[in-house]
Design a protein that fits this description.
alpha/beta, binds magnesium ion
C-alpha cells in the first residue's frame, strides 16, 4: 500500500475506483449471452482435473435454468475444496458461448449459503498491483472512509454550483447505489467525479500561485545598466556591451526578437528572479536573444551560464558566442565533459574569479563542480528535452552553486548581510507548450514566443519517398554537392540496439562514400554517431561546418541546434521511426541559409495508416507549433511532460483534454481564494498535493 502512496486515511479515501462490477444481481445461467460479464449462482455437479493440452480444473455448475462449465488453468487445493461437488457457489466472469455450451475461464468465485444476500452497492475495482488483492484493498478503503477527514475546507462560493459536497462525492464514488447509470461514473462525467476533478485542479492552481508568490519574495540581482565603476571612469562614457553586441551582429533583429528581448530585459531589471520560457520554432533565432540577455548580465557586472543538452550543441553555441563576444573583449569559458586536466582547471579558475563573463557547457558539466564568482543569469537551451525531475534538480543546483558566492559578492561587508541572491533563469525550447499544459503545469512560468522567422529563408520543401527510391535520392545529393551545397543524411535511432544503430549508419556511410567518391573525386563524406569520443565528434563537426566536408552521415546526435547554413538537403532514413517533433527538429537543420532547401523522408514500407498520415503531416506543414499540436494528440501530455512518473501523476483525476471547463473555473477561483480565504487555500493544497507540490516548481 505504501508503494501505491496509500499511507494516510485520506490517501485511501482518495484512491478511487477504476470501474465497478455489478454484483447486485444474479442471472439465470440460461439467460447469459456470449461475451457478457455475468454473475450466476448454482450447485457444483461435477469437478475434475483434466489433462488436456494443460492440466486444468473443469467444473460443471448448474442452477434451475441450465448449466455452465468453469475452467481453471491455475488452481490450488483450496480452490478445489470450494468448488467440490454439491457445493453452492456464486461466480462472476465473462461468458463464452462455445460450441460445446457455455463456459467461463477463470471466473471469480466464492462459496455461499442458499439465499445469501447480494451486495446492495456496486463493487468497486481499484487501481492496484499484483501483490495487493482487491478484497484487501476494498476493506482498507471502506474502513478508512469512516475516518478520513473529508470535511469541506472550501467556502461554498468557491465550488461550482451543482456539484455535491466532497464527502458525499467520495462516498458515492466508492459505493455507488445500485441503479445508478454506470456510464456516467466510468466516463467520469458524474457530478461526483466533477467535484473531485475540480478539487484537484484547484489544488494545482493554488500550488502554482503559491510557488509564484514564494518566488516573488526571492531576490535576484538587477541586471540593467552598468556598474558604477564603469560609469565613473573619466572620458567619454563607454558604450554597453549590449549596445556594442547589437551593433556588431551581421543582421538586424526581427520584430519578434526585439519584442522578446524587451520582455526579458524587463524581467532582468527587477530584483526578483526571472523564470521565463522562450519558445520559438527551429531557426527562429533564439541564440541571439540569449546572447543579448547575457550581455545585460555582463554589463551589470554579473556572469551568465548557457547550458545545452549535448556537447555538440554546447560547442556550436560556444563558437557562435565567441565569434560575437570575444571581439568585444568578453572572456567566454567553455566546459564540456571532454575538457579535462589543465584546460579545465584554467576554465574553472576563470569562472571562479569572475573573469569569464559567459560560461557555455552541457548541463552535467556546469552542475558538477563549478563555482561561479557572480552568477546572475542561467540560460537553458532545448529545455524540452529534459524531464520535470531533471529541471528541478538543475534549479536546486543553480541556487546552490550561485547562491552563497553571489550573496557574498553582493554584500559589501559581512555586517550588512543582504538577502541571498538567486540567478535569473531563461529556458529556451522549440517545442511550444500547449495551452492547457501552460495553464496547469507551467502556470508559474512567463512565456515569450518568437513567432517570426528571420527574413530571407526559403521554406523547406519536404518530400516523402519509399526507400526503393534511394538511388534517385543519392543522385540528387550529387547535384547538390556539385553546386557547392552540403547534405545531411540522418540514420534512425534503434532504441533496442545502439550497435544496430551504428551498423546502419556505418553501412550508409560506406555506400555514400563509394558512390559519391566515384562521381565526385575529393568529395568528403563524414560519419557522426553517439558512441564516438567527444574529440572525434568535434573534429567531424568542424570539417562539416567549415564546408570542406560535403556529406555528413549522422545518427540523431545532430538533432538539436546544429547550425550550418550552407546545408540545403537533408535525407532522413526510416523516417517512420521518428516522432513528429523530432523530425521537425531534424528538418530544421536545413533551410538556415538563403538556398531553397529540401528534406527527404525515406520510409521502409509497408506503412500503417497513422504512419502514412504522420509523414504526410510533415510534408504538409513546416509550422512547428502545428506539428507539436498533432504530436501531442498522438502521444498525450504525459509524454510531453517528459516525466510520466512524476509530472503526469500530478493529475490523477482530471484530464487536460476533456476538463478544460473545470480548469477554467479553478483558475478563476484560485486567486480569490488565496486573497480572501488564505487558510482554506493552504488546507486545500496540503490535502491534495502534500509532497507533490515540489514538482510544480520545475
Ligand atoms: P534556434 O532558434 O533554432 O536556436 P538559431 O539561434 O540557431 O535558431 O538561429 C538560426 C540562424 O538564424 C542562425 O544562423 C542565426 O545566426 C540566424 N539569425 C538569427 N536571428 C537572425 C535575424 N534577425 N536575421 C537573420 N538571421 C538571423
Ligand atoms: Mg537553438
Amino acid at each position: 500500500m505504501e508503494r501505491l502512496g496509500l499511507v494516510r486515511d485520506i490517501d485511501l479515501a482518495l484512491h478511487l475506483p477504476l470501474r465497478y462490477e455489478d454484483e447486485t444481481q444474479l442471472q439465470p445461467i440460461a439467460h447469459t449471452r456470449d461475451g457478457q460479464t455475468a454473475q450466476v449462482e448454482g450447485v457444483v455437479r461435477e469437478a475434475q482435473v483434466e489433462l488436456r493440452s494443460r492440466r486444468q480444473l473443469v467444473v460443471r455448475l448448474a442452477d434451475d435454468s441450465g448449466e455452465i462449465t468453469l475452467r481453471f488453468l491455475n488452481f490450488y487445493p483450496s480452490h478445489q475444496k470450494v468448488l467440490a461437488r454439491s457445493q453452492r457457489v456464486r461466480v462472476r466472469g465473462e461468458v463464452r458461448g462455445g460450441f460445446l455450451g457455455r463456459e467461463m475461464v477463470h471466473p471469480t468465485f466464492k462459496a455461499v449459503e442458499p439465499g445469501a444476500p447480494l451486495p446492495a452497492a456496486l463493487t468497486p475495482v481499484y487501481p492496484s498491483s499484483a501483490q495487493l488483492p482487491q478484497v484487501y484493498l476494498r476493506k482498507a478503503i471502506t474502513s478508512a472512509l469512516g475516518r478520513a477527514p473529508l470535511d469541506e475546507v472550501l467556502p461554498p462560493a468557491a465550488v461550482p454550483s451543482g456539484l455535491p459536497p466532497l464527502k458525499e462525492a467520495v462516498r458515492l464514488l466508492h459505493q455507488p447505489p445500485p441503479g445508478l447509470p454506470l456510464a456516467t461514473l466510468e466516463d467520469r462525467s458524474h457530478p461526483a467525479w466533477q467535484r473531485l476533478k475540480f478539487e484537484e485542479l484547484l489544488a494545482q492552481q493554488l500550488a502554482q500561485a503559491q510557488a509564484m508568490a514564494a518566488r516573488e519574495r526571492l531576490r535576484a540581482p538587477v541586471l540593467a545598466g552598468m556598474p558604477r565603476e564603469a560609469q565613473d571612469t573619466h572620458g567619454p562614457s563607454p558604450l554597453s556591451l549590449h549596445t556594442r553586441l547589437q551593433a556588431a551582429l551581421p543582421f538586424a533583429l526581427t520584430g519578434a526578437q526585439a519584442r522578446v528581448c524587451g520582455e526579458i530585459d524587463a524581467d532582468l531589471a527587477r530584483p526578483v528572479p526571472m523564470h521565463r520560457l522562450l519558445q520559438g520554432d527551429v531557426g527562429s533565432g533564439k541564440t541571439v536573444v540569449a546572447a543579448l540577455a547575457a550581455a545585460r548580465a555582463i554589463d551589470a557586472g554579473w556572469q551568465c551560464a548557457l547550458m545545452a543538452p549535448t556537447e555538440i550543441l554546447a560547442e556550436q553555441h560556444f563558437h557562435k558566442l565567441v565569434q560575437w563576444l570575444q571581439p568585444l573583449g568578453i572572456t567566454v569559458a567553455w566546459l564540456t565533459g571532454s575538457r579535462k586536466g589543465k584546460a579545465r582547471q584554467a576554465m574553472l579558475a576563470q569562472i571562479a574569479s569572475g573573469e569569464a563573463g559567459l560560461v557555455v557547457g552541457t548541463h552535467a558539466v556546469i552542475q558538477d563542480d563549478v563555482v561561479f564568482a557572480r552568477l546572475g543569469l542561467a540560460v537553458v537551451d532545448e529545455q524540452h528535452r529534459f524531464g520535470v525531475a531533471q529541471r528541478l534538480e538543475l534549479r536546486h543546483k543553480l541556487v546552490e552553486t550561485a547562491g552563497d558566492a553571489a550573496a557574498d559578492a553582493a554584500r559589501p561587508s559581512k555586517a550588512a548581510a543582504g538577502p541571498r541572491l538567486e540567478p535569473h533563469l531563461l529556458t529556451m525550447s522549440a517545442t511550444p507548450i500547449p495551452r492547457t499544459l501552460a495553464m496547469t503545469y507551467f502556470a508559474d512560468l512567463a512565456v515569450s514566443t518568437l513567432d517570426e522567422l528571420p527574413p530571407g529563408r526559403t521554406p523547406i520543401v519536404t518530400k516523402v519517398f519509399a526507400d526503393s527510391k534511394r538511388e534517385q535520392v543519392i543522385a540528387r545529393i550529387r547535384d547538390e554537392l556539385q553546386q557547392g551545397r552540403q547534405v545531411y543524411w540522418v540514420c534512425p535511432l534503434i532504441e533496442e540496439s545502439e550497435s544496430l544503430d551504428l551498423q546502419n549508419a556505418t553501412e550508409t556511410h560506406a555506400q555514400l562514400s563509394a558512390v559519391l567518391g566515384a562521381a565526385l573525386p575529393g568529395c568528403q563524406v563524414g560519419l557522426l554517431h553517439g558512441r564516438m569520443p567527444a574529440g572525434e565528434k568535434a573534429a567531424v563537426m568542424a570539417e562539416f561546418s567549415s564546408g570542406r566536408m560535403g556529406v555528413l552521415v549522422a545518427t540523431t546526435v545532430i538533432e538539436v541546434g546544429v547550425d550550418v547554413p550552407n546545408a540545403s538537403l537533408m535525407v532522413i532514413e526510416h523516417a517512420e521511426r521518428f516522432g513528429l517533433a523530432q523530425l521537425h527538429q531534424l528538418r530544421g537543420r536545413v533551410g538556415r541559409g538563403s538556398a531553397a532547401s529540401v528534406c527527404v523522408l525515406l520510409y521502409t514500407g509497408p506503412l500503417s495508416d497513422t504512419g502514412k498520415s504522420r509523414l504526410r503531416a510533415m510534408a504538409e506543414t513546416t509550422d512547428g507549433f502545428e506539428i507539436a499540436r498533432r504530436d501531442l494528440q498522438i502521444r498525450g501530455p504525459g509524454e510531453f511532460m517528459g516525466a510520466r512518473q512524476s509530472g503526469a501523476d500530478l493529475l490523477r483525476f482530471a484530464d487536460l483534454n476533456g476538463d478544460t471547463g473545470l480548469l477554467e473555473q479553478a483558475r478563476r477561483v484560485a486567486p480569490r481564494l488565496m486573497a480572501e480565504h488564505p487558510a482554506a487555500a493552504r488546507a486545500h493544497v496540503a490535502r491534495w498535493l502534500s509532497t507533490k507540490a515540489e514538482y510544480l516548481k520545475a
